[in-house]
Design goal:
alpha/beta; five-stranded parallel sheet; 8 helices; 53% helix; binds shikimate-3-phosphate; shikimate kinase activity; kinase
Length: 168
């Protein structure tokens, strides 16, 4: 039987990239909570943060997760990096599928995000220091919320894909 996978992890951990590749390869539906929120609000995430605030965005995250729990199709779901902050969200994600944490170091994440302009939380910050601090605050949430932890530093893409595939 097919199993749905919910990918969690910090911004830049590869949730969307790996999720898209795997869903095409295995004919799963690909879903991304940020995309669903942007469609719902008809504006980019940066704009939602700017005009409506982070709390409003966090409520939308829970709303879209709730909607996804009603879907019967097996899916690979990429979630926003802050999705694990609410216990309610963790329970919803676990009801959707196996929760896989793509773990990466601040160094790796800062490198992947160095040219990013789409993440409001990173705007105007020293990326490495900001990521290091925020990751330290969120580390336990990711690790406790996960069913499986996959370390991605210094691994090639194919090896990471293979590890995730073990849970499909
Ligand atoms: C956020 C991560 C982003 C997006 C928003 C907030 C966070 O998603 O949901 O900018 O709090 O870590 P990605 O992890 O897909 O970048």
């Amino acid at each position: 039987m097919k199993n749905s996978i919910v990918l969690i992890g910090f911004m830049g951990s590869g949730k969307t990239t790996f999720g898209k590749i795997l869903s095409e390869r295995h004919h799963y539906q690909f879903m991304d909570t940020d995309d669903l929120i942007m469609k719902k609000e008809n504006m980019p995430i940066t704009e939602i943060f700017k005009t409506k605030g982070e709390d409003y965005f966090r409520q939308l995250e829970t709303d879209v997760l709730k909607e996804l729990t009603h879907k019967n199709d097996k899916m690979i779901l990429s979630t926003g990096g802050g999705m694990i902050l609410k216990q309610e969200n963790v329970a919803l994600m676990k009801s959707i599928g196996t929760v896989v944490y793509l773990k990466a170091s601040p160094h790796t994440l800062a490198n992947r995000l160095k040219n990013d302009t789409t993440r409001p939380l990173l705007k105007g910050k020293n990326k490495f220091l900001f990521i290091k601090d925020l990751l330290a605050k969120r580390k336990d949430y990711y690790e406790k919320g996960a069913d499986v932890i996959i370390k991605t530093d210094e691994k090639n893409i194919q090896d990471i894909l293979k590890e995730i595939e073990g849970y499909l």
